[in-house]
Structure formats: structure tokens, C-alpha cells
Amino acid sequence: MIIMKTDATEEDIQRVIAEVEGSGLRAAVIHGEYLTVVGPVGDERLLDFDKVATLPGVKEAARVETPYKLIGREYAKFLAEPGAHKTVRIGDIHIGNGEPVIIAGPCAVESRQQIMRMAEEVKKAGAHILRGGIFKPRSSVHSFQGLGSNGVKDAEEALSWLKQAGDAFDMPIVTEVRGESMIEMMAKYVDIMHIGARNMYDQDLLVQVAQQGKPVLLKRHFGASIEEMLSFSEYIAAESNKDIILCERGIVPVGKGKSYTRYTLDLAAIPVVHKETYLPIIVDPSHATGRRDLIFDMSCASISAGADGLMIESHYNPAEALVDGPQMVTPDELKDIIDACKTLYRTRKSFSHATDN
Ligand code: PEP
Ligand code: MN
């Protein structure tokens, strides 16, 4: 990690980058609220840190032996206010360090009419960001794969409906990016690029999505430790993209009997991520439980544990939904959840021992 002085000039930063690149490494440049940090990416043994430390404008240069340093609180605490985590800004919506941000919408975009109606209803319920999948990761090849599965033309049409719905009700949009070939086309429409749980380990996808320069929502793989989730989010930061939103969405249940939920929601991941990094973390109670009757309680629990937001699947008629009907809440239920979460957020904030308060 190479930490620049507060008064380092652009020329000083460029000199450091040239030294890093001249040693055969790449340089990730992270501009914090106060300081700029240059993170060498690659085999750090090739870089003479003692020499870099003597360059003008350099405050500190040292090798850091952890899998996540660009996003780690320990090494990058100067990038955000002490104690606080980073705010990812999407227009005037701020994720992190404030009121919980609610992402809501159907599991999949099913038609223009459906996404338009959903946008109107989730906005009325108090949601801030609209979701809707174009490509659905499914266990069975015989089930609905999302409107995008028929090729680029259909994918782009469905995406344009999602965007029109977001624009009509003044909400940014988020959708899952799966195939690398669709990334550039999708980046033209979406405000937040979502990497699904199944693809958390796909480092090539992470890098290419990060290079679009848009905020990235990275979901935890259901078999991944917290350390793995953080290590893989470092691939995004290494592309000089620090607008990363992590998402806890449940891990594989243990034991032989019924677990009664689709996955096991790991609530402790929220304060742990806040202590380990400065990144915001949201929770998806829909995929974590797979059950409509548990979404209210798990949403409240997540906000009580300090989550920066929620991603909730909603449909005006869950029984008719082409995917994930059993976990969809109605817009009425969504409103109740959002109202409860706002109250819980304010209550939690009034206690000084809450993590990151
Ligand atoms: C989704 O949010 O649409 C989704 C498929 O979730 P996950 O990747 O967490 O399974
Ligand atoms: Mn779903």
C-alpha cells in the first residue's frame, strides 16, 4: 500500500504509478475523502517499497500481507471518516452511513406492463431503487430463464423496459450481469451492476464488470466465508472501482433434517463486514429465506444488526410470478417492512454501542 500525503500533487501520484508500473505491477488508485492511496496489484515482491517511500508526496509505503487491503479498514481507514463506512452514491441516493436504502422489485422482468406496475407500487411503498432480473440463474434448464435468455435483442428490450420503469418513477435500476459478452450493452442501461451469488468466484466477470466504472453489488456466494467475499470484492477495488456494495443473502444450511429456510441468513456478517472494511453491506432476506412469512422479521433483524439497506423481492400477485413466487412480498407488505425498518434504524442509531455509530 502506498499512502500519499494530503498535499500530494497529481504529478506526485503519477510518479508513484509510473514506478509501480515500471516494476511490472498494475496500480489501483483510490481517492479517499482525505487522501489518495495507490495499491500495487500483482506480485509485490517486484516492487522496491523502500525506494517508493522516498518519492515526493509519499507518506508511507509498505507491503501488506492480507487478501483484502484496498477495502480493508485496517489499511485504508484514511479513505473514509474514522469509524464510518463508505457511502456509495447513485445520484442523490446514498448507500452507507445513513438511512437504510431499499432495493425492491420482482425477481424477474416478465413484461413491460409488469415492470411498469411494479415500479409504481414499490416506489409508493417507499423503495429507492428498482430491481428486476433479465437473466435468471436457475437449477433447471426447463424453467423460465429470464427474458434475456433468448439473445441480445430480447435482453436489450427487457432492459429498456426496466430502465423506462425506473425513469418513470425516478428510481435507479439494478440487474444481474452474468455473461461477459453482455456487460458493455448492460452498462448502457443499469445504474448498479449486480453480480449474483453463483458468480462471486468468477474473477474475470468481477474485473470486467468493475471496469465499467459503475457501482457494483456483489452478493456473497452461499458457500463462501466472509473472508472469501472480501477477497473477491478486492478484485473490483483493484480496478480502481471502490463503489462496492456487499450483499449477505444466506449461506448453505447445515445438518440432515429440514432447515425450513432456503439458506441460512448470516446476520453476524453485517457487523463483521463493518469492522473489517469500510464498505456498505445490504441484506437480501428474500433469497436467504425463500419464505414470504419470514421477510418482515429478517428485514427488521438485518437493520437492527446495522445493515445499510435491503434487497427485497416483491410482486403485486406473487402467485402469478414466473420465478420465486413463494418469497415475494406484496407492495402492501413491503410498505410495512420499510416503515418498521426506518423506525428501527433511528432507534439503533441512538445507542452508542451499535457498530459504526
Ligand atoms: C437475485 O437476486 O436475483 C438472485 C438470483 O440472487 P442470488 O444470486 O443471491 O441467488
Ligand atoms: Mn429471485
Structural write-up:
The chain is built from twelve helices and 14 strands. With 357 residues, the protein is an alpha/beta fold. It has two domains: 62 residues, Phospho-2-dehydro-3-deoxyheptonate aldolase, domain 1 (Alpha-Beta Plaits), CATH 3.30.70.1140; 269 residues, TIM Barrel (Alpha-Beta Barrel), CATH 3.20.20. Helix 11 packs parallel to helix 12. The model has no long low-confidence stretch (mean pLDDT 93).
Describe this structure in a few short sentences.
The protein has 357 residues and is α/β, with parallel strands linked by helices.
Q: What's the arrangement of secondary structure elements?
A:
Blueprint: E1 2-4, H1 10-22, E2 26-31, E3 36-41, H2 49-53, E4 58-61, H3 73-76, E5 88-90, E6 93-95, E7 101-105, H4 112-125, E8 129-131, H5 152-168, E9 173-176, H6 183-187, E10 192-195, H7 203-210, E11 216-219, H8 226-237, E12 244-248, H9 269-276, E13 281-283, H10 285-289, H11 292-304, E14 309-313, H12 331-349
Parallel strand pairs: 7-8, 7-14, 8-9, 9-10, 10-11, 11-12, 12-13
Antiparallel strand pairs: 1-3, 1-4, 2-3, 5-6
Helix pairs in contact: 4-5, 4-12, 7-8, 11-12
The chain binds phosphoenolpyruvate and manganese (II) ion.
Phosphoenolpyruvate binds next to loops.
